[in-house]
């Protein structure tokens, strides 16, 4: 006999009861803020497709990093927007390239308060906008890209990055970067693999955020949305290659993959609430169709429930404040 013996509503009757019964919680320390820094500008530039987000100057980046550290979030993920691009993404390996300069400064400023991280991918640095170098016929050359990633990884580690986010989706990228780091003595640099990174529409606003030049798409290297089992396979391969953390991306549309990966591996699993997810909520909230704060907090809880240990989200600092207020 189920009812009236069992009344599930008993555990939902008041806010204090619900708070005590919550199976999952999100803490500020689990949140990572993605940030963009642009070379050669004197004022931060708003990203129109991501209201509230900007391309930072080095100065405004430093101030925002300090605010983020004070908010108690877990980390910062830096993306560079260089002034000049070329076919092989030279700015990515230049110690004076914008991303390497920025991570050095930010690590010195807040590196003991949170984990300062860098995106390891060529798309922001190439004039064609692809995540790798190209063959003469214009295809993305997997194996030639690996040595470029290895150089980029060493440059970032040398500059002061504590964690490298490998987001290029080349086969063998984790092993290539790990080997190069070990050779140079950077044995403590953490590798976070964007293992199950799906191609598709949700990265749209990010293109403006980094002024991407891409024409065409990334479907020969990023994963195909119908494939969930393959996401688990990618995660297992990356762990074998030396990844410390694996990630699933985009976020909310791929919580099934996140849960599958969580159940299949014993390393931390992260999720990325990407630009398109951010912009959808911002747009609907601006129209008054969604309660912004409640929607953001619901979405973060969903990531935790699906098994994410940490979440990259453009709302990291604001959400940390809300979580504190609610506690
Ligand atoms: C690659 C990279 C991208 C994002 C993070 N790292 C772009 C892409 O894969 O097309 C997207 C993040 C977002 O949409 O918020 N450097």
Automatic annotation (TrEMBL):
Pathway where this protein functions: Porphyrin-containing compound metabolism; protoporphyrin-IX biosynthesis; coproporphyrinogen-III from 5-aminolevulinate: step 1/4
SMART domains according to UniProt: ALAD (SM01004)
Keywords: Heme biosynthesis, Lyase, Magnesium, Metal-binding, Porphyrin biosynthesis
Pfam families in UniProt: ALAD
GO CC annotation: cytosol
Active site, UniProt feature: 197 (schiff-base intermediate with substrate), 249 (schiff-base intermediate with substrate)
InterPro entries: ALAD, ALAD_AS, Aldolase_TIM
Binding site for Mg(2+): 234
Broad enzyme group: lyase
Known EC number: 4.2.1.24
Residues holding 5-aminolevulinate 2: 275, 314
GO biological process, any: heme biosynthetic process
Coiled coil stretches, renumbered: none
Family: Belongs to the ALAD family.
Function, in words: Catalyzes an early step in the biosynthesis of tetrapyrroles. Binds two molecules of 5-aminolevulinate per subunit, each at a distinct site, and catalyzes their condensation to form porphobilinogen.
Subunit structure: Homooctamer.
Protein name: Delta-aminolevulinic acid dehydratase
């Amino acid at each position: 006999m189920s009812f009236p013996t069992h009344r599930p509503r008993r555990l939902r009757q008041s806010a204090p009861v619900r708070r005590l019964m919550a199976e999952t919680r999100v803490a500020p320390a689990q949140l990572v803020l993605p940030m963009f820094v642009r070379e050669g500008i004197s004022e931060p530039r708003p990203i129109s497709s991501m209201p509230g987000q900007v391309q930072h100057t080095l100065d405004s980046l430093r101030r925002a990093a300090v605010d983020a550290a004070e908010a108690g979030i877990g980390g910062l993920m830096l993306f560079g927007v260089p002034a000049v691009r070329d076919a092989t993404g030279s700015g990515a390996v230049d110690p004076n390239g914008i991303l390497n300069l920025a991570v050095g400064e930010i690590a010195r400023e807040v590196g003991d308060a949170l984990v300062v991280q860098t995106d390891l991918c060529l798309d922001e640095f190439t004039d064609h906008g692809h995540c790798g170098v190209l063959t003469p016929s214009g295809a993305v050359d997997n194996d030639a890209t690996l040595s470029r990633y290895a150089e980029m990884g060493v440059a970032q580690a040398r500059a002061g990055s504590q964690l490298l986010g490998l987001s290029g989706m080349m086969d063998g990228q984790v092993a290539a970067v790990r080997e190069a780091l070990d050779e140079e003595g950077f044995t403590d640099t953490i590798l976070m693999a964007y293992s199950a990174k799906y191609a598709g529409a949700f990265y749209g606003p990010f293109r403006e955020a980094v002024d991407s030049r891409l024409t065409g798409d990334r479907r020969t290297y990023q994963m195909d949305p119908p494939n969930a089992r393959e996401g688990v396979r990618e995660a297992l391969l990356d762990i074998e290659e030396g990844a410390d953390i694996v990630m699933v991306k985009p976020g909310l549309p791929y919580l099934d993959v996140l849960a599958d990966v969580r159940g299949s591996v014993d390393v931390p699993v992260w999720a990325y609430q990407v630009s398109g997810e951010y912009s959808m909520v911002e747009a609907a909230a601006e129209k008054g169709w969604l309660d912004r704060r409640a929607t953001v907090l619901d979405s973060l809880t969903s990531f935790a429930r699906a098994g994410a240990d940490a979440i990259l989200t453009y709302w990291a600092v604001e959400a940390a404040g809300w979580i504190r207020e609610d506690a």
